[in-house]
């Protein structure tokens, strides 16, 4: 049996905050309890928001917390060709289709409906506008350079499933159970973006397999995404890790901490004289 392998995988689009610290420290604690390894992955597919100073800041913040990681750091931006091959494999099986719709067009289409189904993140489910385009129209629009995403054909993907889709959940003590997965609630999800040949969903399942991740520890805000991830793992012939989704660190209003909201960063705390032991105490991890 190989050692359990976990990963902490932040996106370098801002400085880490207490929520990241809680996730990283929780990963480290569980990896230690399981006698496993902890890897670091930089999820930098969003090239427009990634900054070198944020990448270095991530390294600095994690080192300040006293965290040490096994193996080399994996950066997603260095593996676009692998994601493109995975995307091509799904498209060759007609499990993906190109979508030329802008967000505005999608919003207008769903606005005409009396009731709008939404995905777990609250976004309207894609109405399938481009799913029925003819091959000739698709080819002409692609050859003309029209921007497009690649969406999963949800119905075709589920028809290709040959075994029950289940999620392996584990508790911090290692105890496991399985629950059914329901990827239908994501509809025809985007698998490759307009600007890069992947999405978070495709890149994360590919990387987890490449890095031999056996246990995924991440926040509850990503729990619903696991339904889609186990589907992609099945379609690509990848192993499914066991998953544990921890609680989120929230501000005084009850909202989760977020870089986009300007939540206080670890760098700010450090500059104000807070030390790593105090951070652990604040997070209930002392």
Strand content: 15-25%
Radius of gyration: 20 Å
In the predicted model, the low-confidence regions spanning at least 5 consecutive residues are: none
> How many independent structural domains?
2
Mean pLDDT: 95
Protein name: Glutamyl-Q tRNA(Asp) synthetase
GO molecular function, one term: glutamate-tRNA ligase activity
InterPro entries: aa-tRNA-synth_I_CS, Glu/Gln-tRNA-synth, Glu/Gln-tRNA-synth_Ib_cat-dom, GluQ/Sye, Rossmann-like_a/b/a_fold
EC number: 6.1.1.-
Name its key features:
Rossmann fold, 286 residues, 36% helix, zinc, alpha/beta
Structure explained in plain terms:
The protein has 286 residues and is an alpha/beta fold. The protein folds into two domains: 1-72 and 249-285, HUPs (Rossmann fold); 78-246, Rossmann fold, CATH 3.40.50.620. It contains ten helices and ten strands. The strands form three sheets. It has a four-stranded mixed β-sheet with strand order 7-6-10-9. Helix 1 (18-33) links the parallel strand 1 (5-8) and strand 2 (37-42). Helix 7 (200-210) packs across helix 8. The longest helix has 16 residues, at 18-33. The two termini are 32 Å apart. Its EC number is 6.1.1.-. GO terms for molecular function: ATP binding; glutamate-tRNA ligase activity. It is an enzyme of class 6 (ligase). This is Glutamyl-Q tRNA(Asp) synthetase.
């Amino acid at each position: 049996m190989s050692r359990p392998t976990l990963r902490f995988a932040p996106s370098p689009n801002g400085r880490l905050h207490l929520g990241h610290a809680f996730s990283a420290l929780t990963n480290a604690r569980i990896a230690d309890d399981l006698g496993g390894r902890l890897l670091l992955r930089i999820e930098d597919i969003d090239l427009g928001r990634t900054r070198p100073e944020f990448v270095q800041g991530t390294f600095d913040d994690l080192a300040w917390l006293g965290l040490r990681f096994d193996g080399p750091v994996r950066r997603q931006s260095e593996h676009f060709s692998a994601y493109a091959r995975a995307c091509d494999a799904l498209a060759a099986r007609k499990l993906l289709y190109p979508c030329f719709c802008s967000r505005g067009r999608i919003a207008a289409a769903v606005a005409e409906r009396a009731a709008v189904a939404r995905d777990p993140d609250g976004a309207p489910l894609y109405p399938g506008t481009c799913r029925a385009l003819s091959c000739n129209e698709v080819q002409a629009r692609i050859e003309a350079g029209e921007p497009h995403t690649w969406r999963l054909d949800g119905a075709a993907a589920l028809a290709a499933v040959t075994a029950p889709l289940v999620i392996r959940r584990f508790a911090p003590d290692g105890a496991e159970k399985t629950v059914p997965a329901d990827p239908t609630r994501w509809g025809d999800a985007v698998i490759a973006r307009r600007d890069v040949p992947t999405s978070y969903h495709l890149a994360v399942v590919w990387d987890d397999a490449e890095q031999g991740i056996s246990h995924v520890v991440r926040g509850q805000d990503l729990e619903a995404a696991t339904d889609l991830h186990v589907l992609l793992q099945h379609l690509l012939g990848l192993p499914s890790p066991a998953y544990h989704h921890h609680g989120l660190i929230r501000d005084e209003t009850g909202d989760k901490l977020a870089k986009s909201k300007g939540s206080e960063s670890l760098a700010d705390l450090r500059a104000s004289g807070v030390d790593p032991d105090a951070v652990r105490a604040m997070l209930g991890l002392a």
